[in-house]
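#lab-general

N.A. 3:47 PM
ok so I finally got the sequence cleaned up, no stray characters, all 125 residues accounted for. can someone with queue access submit it? mine expired

B.Y. 3:52 PM
send it over

N.A. 3:53 PM
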Amino acid sequence: DVQLQASGGGLVQAGDSLRLSCVASGLTFDDYSMAWFRQAPGKEREFVSAFRWSGGTTRYADSVKGRFTISRDIAKNTLYLQMNSLKPEDTAVYYCGLTRIVWSEIANHKQYNVWGQGTQVTVSS
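B.Y. 4:20 PM
back already:
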């Protein structure tokens, strides 16, 4: 069945960079979209970035535009999130998700049924 495995988080200083990875199994990725969300303690899960597998369309939250880049490796069934110029406000558990919903609703975490386990990103000031 469908499974996602996220990795790449860590403890860094403000201004540093990290690259997160999400490896998918049990899918062909045809007509699917994948996305990164994050969740800080006591807060709701927040949209970060999404990638439509067919066509390569991307979308970013305003808070990360110009700093984060989402990409994929089709041969490895892997989604990446390159995070540059990290800020303390980026501190959260980062999750990758997969959905078949329409692109206009891609930022709604309640529409996702498949999630990775999450990876912790901590940015010190």
